[in-house]
From TrEMBL:
It comes from the Bacteria. Residues 24-107 form the Carboxymuconolactone decarboxylase-like domain. Pfam families: CMD. This is Carboxymuconolactone decarboxylase family protein. Transmembrane segments: none annotated.
Length: 112
């Protein structure tokens, strides 16, 4: 785990920018995904960041956790809202593990 999330976020942003300067088409494609995600402003920034933070947890992306935690703060999320989003991520991960366990048992039993 990172001891200093603020420095990690700064490092990730600088690294991302440097990679984007070297490979601008990749950065443009990535930016287009983000632009499409916020099109029509159906979700406010705080809701988007709470979702992004929960997804970052389920995908185990520490850099994403840092970035979206910082963006959630900027968007005005409270600790209680973040905890609720994280509880949802935990529940979804447990549910996914449960349903995939059922699939694994099916696969095992089909092999017998």
């Amino acid at each position: 785990m990172f001891a200093d999330w603020k420095n990690d976020v700064s490092h990730v942003r600088k690294s991302f920018s440097a990679l984007g300067q070297k490979y601008p088409k990749m950065l443009q494609a990535y930016a287009a995904l983000n632009t499409a995600a916020v099109e029509n402003n159906v979700l406010d920034a705080k809701t988007r960041e709470l979702i992004a933070l929960a997804v970052a947890v389920t995908t185990r992306c520490e850099s994403c956790i840092g970035i979206h935690a910082a963006e959630a703060v900027k968007a005005g999320a409270t600790e209680e809202e973040v905890a609720a989003a994280l509880a949802t991520a935990i529940a979804m991960n447990a549910g996914a593990a449960y349903t995939y366990s059922l699939r694994a048992l099916e696969a095992f039993n089909d092999q017998q």
